[in-house]
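Re: the 293-residue chain
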Amino acid sequence: MGARYMAQRLMPAPGAIPRIPGTDIFGVMIPFNGIAGGDLITYVNFQERFDLDFRIRAAVAQGHESVALALQQLKYCGGILVADVAGHEFTDAVRALMLNQAFHTAALYEMDLNGEISVRLFEQVNTRFLKSITLRNLAASPDHASYITLIYGEISHTGRFRFINAGHPMPLVFSREYDRFVDISPDRLKSYAPIGLQPTEDLADASHYERSLGYKKRYTVNELNLMGQGDVLLLYTDGLLDSFSPYTREKLERSVSRAKNGNAKEICDAILQDRNTTAEQTDDISLVVIKHF
């Protein structure tokens, strides 16, 4: 009963999904064990979560024009985080919940300091999860399964998607015009080690961390400007597209093609229905569908 209660609280409420002009968003998490797993979807509805106008006035009064500009841009975009904690047990759901709280606490600090969420947030989260003995003890196999893959991005009303990636499956963009997933240049899809595996190479306290897996570079932001009218952006965990599963990228592409005239929820439902009839679920599955009108 406790696991089911916590799992229900991990799923974002419908009101948490950002409302962006010309954009429809819907996401779902399906735990492998049917109750609670290691996947996480969480949103940043900037307009609802923060008083942007108050923050803009305060930034202007203090002479922080760049902060005021950053805050103004947040009126027309929303944040989406999808993460996959290694494992799908109850304790992995606890780690996902801890990540959720760490992210939103750090996001509040970032908004107060910079008027936006920067890559610094994820550097700090990586450092904390790398060092935390509590988080390692919660992992089913502390030596081998204490990492988290993560993607965080912000979608604007223009269809631009800016994101950082820590070892997570890359987003897929379905073009309505060409009726297929578009090919994206690898230099626009930079990824780094999962959260909790490697310290950043110029970290002030790097000498205090284990270096068995080496160091990572600082996170950088990827940017996609490919979303035209009717295009669909998919964010997901690897439970959706397992390399050993008969549900392939080609079948996913056909699923989106058949449902492309629907809204984000209808596309999401169609994908999951096709996936369930094609292959048995062997891992937690999370999927966020973003449709640009």
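Residues 2-292 form a domain with the Phosphatase 2c; domain 1 fold (CATH 3.60.40.10).
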